[in-house]
Amino acid sequence: MIDSVGMSNRYIIPIANVDTVTPVNTDNTVFSSRKVSPVECQTCKNRRYQDASDEMVSFKTPGKISPGESYAKVMSHEQEHVTNAIAEGNEENKELVSATVSLKTAICPECGRVYIAGGTTRTLMKTYSEDPYGKNQKAFEKEAATGNRIDYVA
Q: What is the 3-class SS of the chain, one letter each residue?
């Protein structure tokens, strides 16, 4: 193909003491080149994810996730925590006030790919039942305040 200045764009222009012009092949990509072939990153290949919470969710045992799948799998794992919090919030005398999920990104030091390194789910639960310490405190305050306001005028 000839461009507007009459130069062909089907050839690589030689540089620095190279005498020949190399034709450009349309299939000359990283994946088809003999000299440059895709190399699997060993850091990404051996990366493992494990959940450290005390809930029954996925990744209790270390599992491998590829960098391309890390967002979907980590987010679905964190959604398991949210589902458990919603179930707990539906119990008697409890209410789920909020649940937030945050994901952490990182960059592989070997290949430079960005991946999801982990996630955190924070929940805020409100309980309506009185705890025994609160009952004892109220009883103590009532007893301590009894008789403090006596009207001697009558």
A: CECCCCCECCEECCCCCCCCCEECCCCCCCCCCCCCCCCCCHHHHHCEECCCCCCCCCCCCCEECCCCCHHHHHHHHHHHHHHHHHHHHCCCCEEEEEEEEEEEEEECCCCCCEEEEEEEEEEEEEECCCCHHHHHHHHHHHHHHCCCCCCCCC
